[in-house]
Amino acid sequence: MHSNGHIHDNGAGFEPILLIPFALVIVIYIAAVVISSRRFKKWPLYRTLFWIFGTICAASAIIGPIANRAHLDFTAHMVGHLLLGMIAPILLVLAAPITLALRTLDVQSARRLSKVLKSWQLRIISNPITASVLNIGGLWILYTTGLYGLMHQNALLHALVHFHVFIAGYLFTASMIYMDPAPHRFSFMFRAIVFTISLAGHDILSKYIFAHPPSGVTKVQAENGGMLMYYAGDAIDVALICILCYQWFKATRPKESLSL
Q: Which whole-number Å values give the CA distances from 100 to 31, 44, 47, 53, in the listed order?
């Protein structure tokens, strides 16, 4: 208990330093919007707002009251997981950062970025199956092994787990809804099937947590956290399903109606 409190205090002390990267990410995006809007058509305001809110969601899972309580309260930890691994990725993907980067960078840098997008490495990690395994599989490892307890005793492990939750969540979202250029595209049917299986994996895990508390978590907290993961997680996934279905509908409309 003392070690949890100790980490908790350290987290509070480091807060001003931890704010810097999040503030920088917002500033860089806004600067890119200004440059892009001068060169091309005005960048949509809603995309900038998605980026700002997405960054705030990610930051609130790492800095501030939710993050500080997460060491002692599993429900607060689960709120952080939903913010960092689900809500922030959807908002940031909707902000289309790759498209903005390609519009802002000089020709040579844009070509380099395009080359990376077309690489076989990105083909592997942008595959919906790979992204789902990294996302849902990572959560199964976190909550069904001793990793959850260990992460609260080691600052580096704690940071790595948070980094994985965010990156895996972003990759999963980006592999399901294409907002940015995606050279390695998969059919809507394939993505819908993979999404359904991963949604089942997430729901089964939340029920498993409810019945089998992770290391160092009380039964009551595990029940509250499991229920939050199940219901709030499904609500966020519904938003993702709506976007995917809307894109599918748009892609399959007759060409004549698209020109209207």
A: 11, 11, 10, 17
The structure tokens 């498209």 sit at 99
- Work out how many domains the chain is built from and give that number: 1
User: What is the pTM for the complete model shown?
Assistant: 0.86
Q: How far apart are CA 203 and CA 209, in angstroms?
A: 10
Q: What is the pLDDT of residues 235-256, one digit of tens each?
A: 999 999 999 999 999 888 765 4
Pairwise pLDDT comparison (215 vs 27), residue with the higher score:
27
Count of beta carbons in the 10 Å neighbourhood of residue 235: 11
| Measured torsion, CA atoms of residues 190, 194, 196, 202, in degrees rounded to the nearest 10 | -170
Tell me if 234 sits within 8 A of 203, measured CB to CB: yes
Select from 245, 233, 247 the least CA-distant residue to 179: 247
* Domain ranges, residue 215: 2-258
